[in-house]
Amino acid sequence: MKDVTIIGGGISGLTAGIYAQLSGLQSEIYERHTIVGGQCTSWMRNGFHIDNCVHWMTGTNPKTELYQLWTDVGVLGNGQELLKHDYFLQVNIDGVKAHVWRDLNKMQDELLAIAPEDAKEIRSFIKAIKDFQAISIPALKPNEQMNFGDKIKMLSMIKALPVARKFGTMSIDDYIKRFKNPTIKALISNYLPKQYYVLATFFMYAMFTTGNADLPLGGSDMITNRMRDTYLSLGGEIHCRKKANKFVIENQRVTKVEFEDGSATETKNVICTTDPSVSFALLGETYMDAIFRKCYADKKSYPIFSEVNVYFSVETSIAHLPIMELFNCEPFEIANKTHSVLCMNNYADEPNFAPEGKGLMQILVVQYEEDYEYWNNLYTTDKEAYRQAKTALVKEIQSRLEKHYPELQGKLTEIECVTPKSFNRFTGAYKGSYMGFVQTPHVEKMTHTGIIDGLNNFHLAGQWLLTPGGLPNALITGRWAVQRLLQRENRLHDFCCKKK
Known about the structure:
Blueprint: E1 4-7, H1 11-22, E2 27-30, E3 42-45, E4 48-51, H2 65-72, E5 82-83, E6 87-93, E7 96-101, H3 104-114, H4 119-132, H5 148-153, H6 161-167, H7 172-175, H8 182-189, H9 199-209, E8 215-216, H10 219-233, E9 237-239, E10 244-250, E11 253-259, E12 264-266, E13 270-272, H11 276-283, H12 290-297, E14 305-314, E15 324-334, E16 337-346, E17 359-368, H13 369-381, H14 383-404, E18 412-418, H15 420-427, E19 458-460, H16 471-488
Parallel strand pairs: 1-2, 1-13, 2-9, 6-15, 13-19
Antiparallel strand pairs: 3-4, 5-8, 6-7, 10-11, 11-12, 14-17, 14-18, 15-16, 16-17
């Protein structure tokens, strides 16, 4: 019997395993899929590498605590190359182009030239991003383990407080109403759900402009493989194709995990990193506390979202195209909703994602819970209709791509179409949501310690514990779960004491 049984081999599970091993705890990971990685996933299709997760990664600035975590788990450092671009996103609305430049002065000058009528709001927008550059996500310790010195360090982020107070109750959709120019509006709303509080946009652009949101070369596959190899090198064990079926609870402890294949393992401590909807199904819904009950019940305040991702191979190099471009197009329908904007992600700077001389692009369209229900109903009632809906959608998108990029006429071939139902089927994501609950204004930020009342040896970890989720929160909560486990056993002094 190992010291720690980890259910789920995604980013959070791998992180928990690595820190458990570094702290002298023997651990093992049980993963339902054939491979580890969870939502941080990629695969090959017709000679092309499909990356269905990371487009940017917070924590690439060596001065941040997140960078230390990414280094601990093997993702950064040791010569790992980062893809650094002069701009994060190009927006093209009716031929008027604007960029999220790394140089904020350059960005402000460009936006003012495009929309002098929005000058006052543009300057306010740029200032908000600059002020948010002071933010550095606390990652080394959970809040209850911070000492006075740790909290003093957080005072460096005080510069962002006035911006947070001024715009903290404003959604992206509300904020863009302050602007007149459609290109500026599109640059601010980008591809995030419109219900998000606008601080998310300030934060995202602030992280990019401080070198804290770049992309490791190799993307999701590199991240997962490096973490897996780090964990195994420390003596951890991974068991794939092991879907947990039930947690056996005795005397306020999880004493056994039963698996779908009929096997079982006895446990000393459990860290469960699955979606909470899965975790509480395994525990029994009576263990779901008020925090999660509120989030699942109040869908307006805590919505979820997903995407339709369509991948095209290109019979030529597309290195001349933008790395990421948001552009308007002729309206089309997805799940009975009209869309008139597409977001294109270009993988030309990933040398191993496409055969030599060819290109790979991804189209992203945001989907919500009701859109998931559309795709889910199609899939469960009529799989042929589901396939036909995907085929029709791909044709609609392809025609708009060829109109926007006329040089690609006749050179595009669809190689993959991922719907919210696909996210659910292949990664177990709750209703296809590849992140946690959306952080909306007017409601308290969702945070959870991962400790469940009535269970003395059980901890949750994963992106759903900290709004709005994502890779950094999966990483952080995996580390924190081990710290909290050790604190419960009065062994916190052992944390990370073992040399790698």
